[in-house]
């Protein structure tokens, strides 16, 4: 990952994509301001998102103000533990569904 992408990272989005059926997923972390993908982790579990968080220095995590995620315990739990100060915005697709 290009570390320069993380220097101004403060609004991120987390989503997963199925790349092969049945049940092969990737967790994608993107920068809402630039539209750039900043990280991809295998799977769609709590561990997938935790791996991204663990790879970030405390200063990068402290800069994150807003996180958009799916409505899931895994995403919510990891996000509130890693960036408790951040505002969580749930994906409206899952809310309206």
Automatic annotation (TrEMBL):
InterPro entries: Transpos_ISL3, Transposase_DDE. It comes from the Bacteria. Residues 12-97 form the Transposase IS204/IS1001/IS1096/IS1165 DDE domain. PANTHER family: TRANSPOSASE FOR INSERTION SEQUENCE ELEMENT IS1557 (PTHR33498). This is Transposase IS204/IS1001/IS1096/IS1165 DDE domain-containing protein. It comes from Mycolicibacterium aromaticivorans JS19b1 = JCM 16368.
């Amino acid at each position: 990952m290009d570390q320069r992408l993380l220097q101004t990272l403060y609004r991120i989005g987390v989503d997963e994509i199925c790349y092969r059926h049945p049940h092969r997923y990737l967790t994608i972390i993107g920068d809402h301001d630039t539209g750039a993908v900043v990280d991809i982790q295998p799977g769609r579990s709590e561990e997938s998102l935790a791996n991204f968080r663990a790879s970030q220095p405390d200063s990068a995590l402290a800069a994150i103000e807003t996180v958009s995620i799916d409505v899931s315990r895994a995403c919510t739990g990891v996000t509130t533990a890693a960036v408790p100060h951040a505002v969580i915005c749930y994906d409206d697709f899952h809310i309206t569904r």
